[in-house]
Design brief:
Length: 182
């Protein structure tokens, strides 16, 4: 079976994270600059190899002051660690077009295993004849595992920022022209 190479279409992809603030509301952020690729066996992503990189400086929560804090040493330290990376290690089929993607996430030069739930949306050609594929993902990670060390507790004992971070996204891939034989 031939191996297909895909690249992330950034114009049609959204990568989000969510954190609780004061444990009473959720703040959502995203990365504006990122890239990634996937190798699949034909149109089957359940055996795929996934790679993803995001520029930390492109982080956006809709609030410039909060974005600046996230880029500081309390969190990502964008100056010293300008990128975060994910590289898949294992794919476990769940059913049909759903699978668990296990890979290494690297933030601040700390690498830990992260599990993502993937749901393939399908494959289609756009109006210009380009082959596209789409999937949704969700998962969780503990920010402190990666050295995102900011820790403040309010008078009621609630964390200012939750340790548990939700990861979510909608990814559209574009097939690279020439498939390679496996």
């Amino acid at each position: 079976m031939e191996t297909k190479k895909w690249t992330i279409d950034p114009a049609h992809t959204n990568i989000h994270f969510k954190a609780k603030h004061l444990m009473i509301t959720t703040v959502t952020g995203s990365f504006g600059e990122f890239s990634g690729s996937v190798e699949s066996l034909g149109d089957d992503f359940s055996q795929g190899k996934f790679e993803f990189t995001a520029k930390v400086d492109s982080i956006s929560t809709g609030n410039a002051e909060r974005d600046g804090h996230l880029k500081s040493d309390d969190f990502f330290n964008a100056e010293t660690y300008p990128e975060l990376r994910f590289q898949s290690k294992e794919v476990k089929s769940v059913d049909g077009d759903s699978f668990e993607l296990i890979g290494d996430m690297t933030i601040r030069d700390v690498t830990k295993s992260v599990s993502l739930n993937i749901e393939v949306g399908g494959i289609a050609k756009d109006p210009w004849g380009n082959l596209k594929a789409g999937f949704s993902f969700s998962g969780k990670m503990n920010r402190k595992d990666f050295g995102l060390k900011f820790h403040v507790v309010n008078e009621a004992g609630n964390l200012l920022v939750s340790d548990q971070i939700k990861l979510e996204g909608e990814v559209q891939l574009a097939a690279v022209e020439a498939p390679v034989e496996a």
